[in-house]
Amino acid sequence: CTILFMRFILNKLLLLILLVLGACADEANQFPSIASLSSVDKDISFQIDEETKLPNNLCWFKDGDKEYLSFVNIYNRTEILIYDLKTGQLTNKIEFEREGPNGILEIYSHSIINFDSIYISCANEQLCLSDTSSQIKQRIPMPKLTDSSKVIAPLSPPTIINHQIYIPQNVNPQLGENYMGKSPLGVMIDTITHKVTATPLHYSNLYSNEDLMYATHGNRTQYIFDGNLFVYSYDILDSLYVLDSELSKIGSYYAKSRYIDEVRTHSNRNWDLNMVLRQTCETPSYGTVVYDKYRQVYYRFAYPETKIEKKDNALDVFREGRKVFSIIILDKDMRMIGETLFPEYSYNSNLFFVNKDGLYLCKTHSKRSDFDENVFCFQCFELIKKND
After folding, report:
1. What's the CA gap between 355 and 269, in Å, rounded?
2. Strand 251-254's sheet: what is its strand order?
3. Which of 8, 20, 197, 340 has CA atoms 20 to 30 A from the CA of 350?
4. Other C-beta atoms within 10 Å of 138: how many?
5. In contact, 351 and 301? CB cutoff 8 Å
6. Using one digit for the tens of pLDDT, what is the confidence trace for 37-72?
7. How many whole angstroms separate alpha carbon 249 and alpha carbon 344?
8. DSSP characters for 298-333?
């Protein structure tokens, strides 16, 4: 009787725990919808020529009182184009040599502090400091990560914090067997002491070395530095992860899209590259995170499950920001306060920037009826709060 009674009590406790967990999950998923993004009549357009191709990412910066937008021309990957945000005019075309004393081979990404400080991630495993003259003022070789591996030159822009440079990392094949789980999300380089500090956050050890090249999700992470914290959006995780500027004090914040039930990982060695990209575009995942300092909110991009047309090139769909996406809105304490779903094939979710007007999304999209390949155009979205 005693054993039966104990089993009865344990079963009741287990049921209670499950009910509590379920209630917590429901409560977290039913966050208050008090904020949304709404388009306003504010467009910014730039004329581009036939030898300029739309970029993979953008760099917004200020020099003095003026705002600028810059990007790498992926037509040749040796040019950085800078546009005046107010006039829409091209102010600088910085052309770098591939070889020689000022050679960069190929530009992966860049960050602009001002016109005198342009940091370039290069294919020759270096960060280069330059200016609008395209002269290389300093070369920073990628340091060792371990005895047998180096830091990878970043494909997304580095972040400069005083005399330190934060370098985001992709999965690093130099780390040997099961290198995915050994790969940190980023490293900090102290340019004075030359100390290298890796993040305590790593990629999830989801795939073998052989299966990783056929993976749809789990091998991408995006980050921002909001001035105090590093905030990471991992493509397979519902939560955002946070590190302080010393790359310690880990925290996490629930940021699940109401349009995504679950992110599933896939890998199939029978797939070719096109099939990997197609599966990546069709299955749910999370994208980048953005900090809006003017309104003290965070935006997290999410990609619900969808189907793309068989006739469409999956690489084009991927480069133009997928078929459909939403933006989750979180307040300054990273509590979810809303989510906005955008129409199919309307905006390029890879290209955006934030200023005092709002969040600007690129609407140069080949599926739009107003598409013009010679115009790089952005639509402004304002943050609307119900209690404002």
Report:
1. 44
2. 221-225, 229-234, 239-244, 251-254
3. 197
4. 11
5. no
6. 999 999 999 999 888 888 989 999 999 999 999 999
7. 39
8. EEEEEE------TTS-HHHHHHTT-S--EEEEE-TT
